[in-house]
Amino acid sequence: MIMTTAPRSGRLVRVRTAQHVELTGFFSPAPGERAPLLISLHGLSGNFDTSFTFDFLQSADLAGIHLLSVGCSGHGNIAMSRVGETPAYRLTGSAFEYFDDCVPDLAAWMDFASDAQAGPIVLMGHSLGASKVLRYTAVTGDPRVRGLVLASAADLRGAFFALHGEDKAAAFLAQARSLVNAGQGRTLMGEDCVLGLLRQRISAQTLLDRFEEGQPADTFDFHGRQSAQAFRDLSAVTAPLLALYGSEGEIVGSAGVRGALELLRSHARSAASFNSAVLGGNHWYMGHEDEAAAVIADWVASHVASSPSVRERTRNHGH
Question: Which end of the chain is less crowded, N or C, counting CB atoms within 10 A of the terminal residue's CB?
Answer without folding.
Answer: N
